[in-house]
Amino acid sequence: MSYQQAKGRLTPRGWLLEHLRRDARGITGNLDRIFPDAGGDIFGKDKVEHQEKGYWSSWWPGEVRGNWMEGLVRLAFLLDDKELKLRADAIVDGILENQAPDGYIGIYREGSRYIVTRRFGELWTQSRVMRTLLVYYSHTGQSRILDALVRMADNIVANMRAAGSLFAIPDEDGSKGHSLMIIDGLSQLYFLTGNDSYRDLCVRLYEDYCAHPSQFIQDDLRTENLMDPKVPFVGHGPHTCEMLRLPLLLYRMTGEKTYREAFLRGLDKLQKNLVLSGSCKSDEFIGTFQSTLVMENDDRASIFGGSIPLPSVGYEYCSTTELLFDYIQAQYLLEDSSFADRLEWLVYNSGLASKHPSGKMIQYLGADNMYDASAAVNPRFDYSPTHDDAAGCCAANSARLMPAFAEQAFLRKDGVLLANLYLPVDFRTENGLTVHETTSYPFGYTVSFRFSGRGGTKFALRIPKYAKSFTLRVNGEAVKYMMDGQILTLARNVRSGTVVELELKPDIGLTRANDGTFAVTYGTLLFSRDIPAVRRVQRRYTGAKGFADSDFTPAPHENWDYVLLTNPDGTCAEASVRYPDGDGYPLDGNCLSVHVRALDRYAYPVDLALVPIGVTTLRRTTFPILCDKDEIYKRRDESCTCPNG
């Protein structure tokens, strides 16, 4: 049996609760009020014709509303918020009320459905609403939802069987590649119902994609490309990141080991394209850059090469969100807890760095070294609740990130309850035992679990790879446990009254960027020099208060030109971790900091304070380092992280 999300009731506390409440007051709770693409009832009464207008097509609002709906539904149930749940109920009721007699759920009017041309938004937008309904079903268990999903899936199977090859006509705008994400939902329905036709359609769609090169640059996940180590990832970042998990889902449905190998090959290629904060270089495409990208140039593939994920390149919020779901599936199906390490690194660094602490603005494109977040640099780099001057995809997709992440706090496998992600939450299991988890993680590294209620369970904890050591106590005493890789399992069951205390002990580290500069890490956080910024509001939104497009530029005379000093062994000189006095929301700046010794631009030694990258708006994350070269040459120690070693 593989990992699966533990069944029960998760209740956020502490900083997580404040973060989610800000989402409710921010983009997630208001995108439909300020952005017509999210607010229109495109899956209901506002269905559209199949249209192609220049580079854009009529399917776009279906993507935006679909992803936003899923985020809202997740947030509503996670917060157990009455108003949000009423809105979620209304959304789902509206979808079901507008389901056609033949089972069709989608964005197109009768006569415009399943029209296969060079652009095809049908399955892509259906995949978005299908995920929304599946999330709602997972929380409510309502049979009417599953019944509607089965009718919808049967309609898709019948119509796609009649349509023949989807990819024989080259995909012009990426909609057909996106359409493969229907596999996400159909695979869940396959395991809920056992209907082989869902599995068979998933296999046929993917193999059809693999057999036909695309006009739009989205061929990274074709099997022949995946299996060839000489072919780099170059495609549209969100496509590559979302499609990465498809071979793994196919492996789960079919048992065909070639799909598993394809996923692992893709994972190796992904690693070469990750920026330090965890996301995939994708501005918009992995293999080129915004300065050279001409969206209307159909011959643009000739300028694409392998990615160079410098600390200054952009990564798209859509890519960040889609990688989250890749890592979740990989941990489930490969039973590898290192994917939870990747998951929290991605969310706590890239995910938070591109999102304003208010919850009301994101960057479409973020970067690890961010010196100017304004539309003058690129409309995708400013802070906005919609980014409708570029595309509304990222704002809607940002709504899915933190709720889906938090839902992975506890997993089950073979009857063992696993503390997978450390978060301030209460979790009431389906058997009536409640876990009260107290922690400021990742802004602190002590975690306490207090159990109450009925029954007992075997209990395990994930020990992150960065934790070189840790201490564990149960009811104040050292106890026996078993280690299997990263998983620590207590030798005895926990029950009401049990208190488990874990202290993780990370080191201050240096990680190397591919341009030879270095960044400071501590635990699961990447640290940056915060650059004080001036905010200039460029546009205010109607429909909800406090929403605006904003440019952030460095405050006058600010300096971020430093060189880190290191010891001969490659560690930071005079490094220390400091915690704030008192409580407060950490992403407002009331959190731990790492202090290191550095040289300023005049070679004067200073104490340089660094904060988690997610706390910053503008920042410098990577720096040159200076160390004792003579000593390094003597050591010839491969473990030294100094580039002169």
Index terms:
disordered C terminus; single chain; 18 helices; 9-stranded mixed sheet; 7-stranded mixed sheet; 645 residues; alpha+beta
Distance between the termini: 46 Å
Structural class: alpha+beta
Helix content: 25-40%
Quote the beta fraction: 15-25%
**How many beta-strand elements?**
30
Tally of DSSP helical segments: 18
| Low confidence ranges | 293-298, 629-645
Give the radius of gyration. 24 Å
Overall spatial form: globular
Mean pLDDT: 93
Main sheet attributes: strand count, strand direction, barrel closure = 9 strands, mixed
Task: Break the fold down into its secondary structure elements and pairings.
Blueprint: E1 4-5, E2 8-12, H1 14-25, H2 27-34, H3 36-39, E3 52-53, E4 56-57, H4 60-79, H5 82-97, H6 122-140, H7 143-163, H8 175-179, H9 182-193, H10 196-211, H11 223-227, H12 237-243, H13 246-254, H14 257-271, E5 315-316, H15 317-334, H16 338-353, E6 362-363, E7 365-366, E8 383-384, H17 393-406, E9 410-413, E10 416-419, E11 425-429, E12 433-439, E13 446-453, E14 456-462, E15 469-474, E16 481-484, E17 487-490, E18 494-495, E19 499-505, E20 508-512, E21 518-522, E22 525-530, E23 533-540, E24 548-554, E25 563-565, E26 576-578, E27 593-599, E28 605-612, E29 619-620, E30 625-626, H18 629-635
Helix pairs in contact: 1-4, 2-4, 4-5, 4-6, 4-17, 6-7, 6-9, 9-10, 9-13, 10-13, 12-15, 13-14, 15-16, 15-17, 16-17
